[in-house]
């Protein structure tokens, strides 16, 4: 079957309709079938169409003004050869359920193609995932690494449900040792039961900086330094000199506590928080706070997802936006 290129569009005559009807290739036109560049590349690669004067290699070079093309082709080929019908758009690809095709079924996945070095803008991801959800599809990232291996990730917006309220601890006072807040709190004050801090001895608890800042803002803890009581703002300014991520961590910590989750440091897992749902023995989520406008390279997200998977936890990125905090989950999947 012979095709032609006009204005960088690959066109087939009316005989091309069969490719659409049988396998969902292209978009029907009045006088034939229009193929996207990646569809044309695949059909030439498989020997199903010919373009006079162009073989696969020369066609790939011709379309390579799009630096994304080789990755797009590899992902398209991989999905096609897994038995799916694929069409371009509205992100990069729309993938139909196995055995279904345009006009005779529904698409299941919306796929965005990325490289391992692409920067992930969480505001953009959030917007694309919302669009996908509104279409009742699953949002998938197809990430092509530098050796051209493909990894698929499903991306979801997680709405954390509020948990049953637990009793608040009673007010306590304390002192500052460098930037470490130590409060005088016996077991009867309820800090152990609410999972705040690390017990130093029977009468003292050492608080993490985010815990101390939160409890001070709640009016539950007062901290004295040099005979004066510290305000929460002064305390945060003091510890913020050694922790440039403090503000976003405080924001996410406060939000999780407001929903009655128990966030503790996620240092051992390489993240801001490990998070418990109530009084469970093991944490269920790893959470990384993401400030407004912050981006992360995809290879960093990949490390996070692999770590969370290895310890059987969900990996959530808590994006801070004007409208509040949005939790985005990344998880590896097999198509």
From TrEMBL:
NCBIfam families: endA, PRK09300.1-4
GO BP annotations, alphabetical order: tRNA splicing, via endonucleolytic cleavage and ligation
Listed InterPro entries: tRNA_endonuc-like_dom_sf, tRNA_intron_Endo_cat-like_sf, tRNA_intron_Endonuc_cat-like, tRNA_intron_Endonuc_N, tRNA_intron_Endonuc_N_sf, tRNA_splic
Record-given protein name: Endonuclease
Domain tRNA intron endonuclease catalytic: 70-152, 247-324
Keywords, ordered alphabetically: Endonuclease, Hydrolase, Nuclease
One Pfam family in the UniProt entry: tRNA_int_endo_N
A cellular-component GO term for this protein: cytoplasm
